[in-house]
Amino acid sequence: MQNTVVTNAHLYGLDETKLIVCDTLGANEQKLHIDAAAAFKEMQIAAVQAGVSLHIASGFRSFAHQQRIWEYKFHHESRQALSNEERIADILRWSALPGTSRHHWGSDFDAYDSATIERSALTLEPWEYEQGGPCHKLFLWLEKNAPRFGFYRPYDQDRGGVAPEPWHWSYAPLSSIYLSEFNSHHLRAVLAQAQLSGLTAESDLDNYLHAYVQTYVMNVATANI
Q: What is the end-to-end Cα distance of the chain in Å, rounded?
């Protein structure tokens, strides 16, 4: 990775200038950062040669996209009986606070095997990647081979933050730089303008963000590539 310049806009999903389309299957067009995309294409070719149909279920996601996910889940009928704090905690086990998703960086993607399950049927649940699941063969292949192409699993085990995600892979040469540049003070300014449900008051942000960033952003596996 050479001369990688990280700006706040890149960190928080507000800039798409370094992205390219790297995977297209039907209407499912996915983008990654140009460097991650090149590595992904090499890995995808190797997977095909091994009889695995590696595709991206979700690559880059903008801040606006992540905010739509947040608002949908926050107001979902299944959480109406919960307090704001309980709703937030429930959402964060599986979905990132807008501005903190690694998908904003263009370095991370969710993988699936298109030969064994259609994207429309995929739910991104652990059982799909476990023995007997449609993406188990893909998972085993990636566990063995993804490091050769620079990818690793940041959510490989439960560390008390994001739950384990066997589908989530990260291009370490890029994501390690983004993670080192992450700044909770800059994030606070972005979120103050966004007015997210459950975090609209300045006191909410001040009391919440530092602990959140440590638990859900920084608390990940270290790439050993």
A: 14
Q: How far is CA 30 from CA 72, 141, 164, 182, 209, in A?
A: 22, 21, 23, 24, 30
- Cβ-based neighbours of 49, under 8 Å, separated by 6 or more: none
Residue pair 111/169 in contact by the 8 Å Cβ criterion: yes
Residue range 84-102: average pLDDT?
88
Contact 216, 161 (CB under 8 A): yes
pLDDT computed for residue 136 by the predictor: 98
Q: What angle do CA 72, 14, 186 make, to 5 degrees?
A: 95
Q: Residue 121: how many CB atoms within 10 A of its CB?
A: 9
Burial of 37-71, coded b for 16+ CB within 10 Å and e otherwise, reads: bbbbeebbebbeeeebbbbbbbbbbbbebbbeebe
The total of other beta-carbon atoms located within 10 Å of residue 181's CB is 16
Tell me the per-residue pLDDT of 108-128, one tens digit each, with 9 for 90 and over. 999 999 999 999 999 999 999
Tell me the pTM.
Answer: 0.90
Measure Cα distances from 201 to 73, 94, 191 in Å. 19, 24, 10
pLDDT score recorded for residue 118: 95
CATH of the domain spanning 8-217: 3.30.1380.10
